[in-house]
Amino acid sequence: MNTTPTPYSSLPLKEMDSVTSICRPGHHTASASLDMDSPALSLLTDFQQVRAFTVSHESSVDDALQTMKQNSIHMLLVINGDGEFTGVISARILFGGSAITRAMQERGIDRTDVTVDMIKLPREEMHAIDYERIQRATLGDLVQTLKTSGDRHVLVTDHDENGGLRIRGVISAREVSNALGVDLDHPPEAHSFSAIRSVVLGHDL
Known about the structure:
Layout: E1 45-46, E2 54-56, H1 61-71, E3 75-79, E4 85-90, H2 91-96, H3 98-107, H4 116-119, E5 121-122, E6 128-130, H5 131-136, H6 139-149, E7 153-159, E8 165-172, H7 173-180, H8 193-201
Parallel strand pairs: 2-3, 6-7
Antiparallel strand pairs: 1-8, 3-4, 4-5, 7-8
Helix pairs in contact: 6-8
């Protein structure tokens, strides 16, 4: 049979009889090959590529936990009634229990009445790194940044079409720790924003 010449080649196909695992967003199948010199983008959960899971600030803590379990995630972005980002709620906070107990005692309420807004990590207490900086950084830079800050999650920001800042993604200390086999679960060395930025930018602000 005559075929029309083409500059393209047929790609080799493999049998599927032994393939049983499905890759999921936020999980890295090649983590064993990552090292401190690997690109920081390797462990960025990029919200342009995967869905950002959110929860209303009015949701109960049990609803938030159920959402995490259903989607196999460990963090939710908290939004207010106007759809604005106000903080994060993590499985670490929910399972820790102390924040929930404190909210119950301070307000004299039952656990079922504790909302995400009462125990979230507020936006004002979080830190962010510019996406452009992440593009040039290594995982070693991230490890040093997380060790310096003590943060469990660091947001990554870029600019929208109007020039305003937006959350582009998030970096999880848990994922960095698991991928590289380093211990990031320790008391922070510093909490100031300038200390964190000095690690990433290479100088003090």
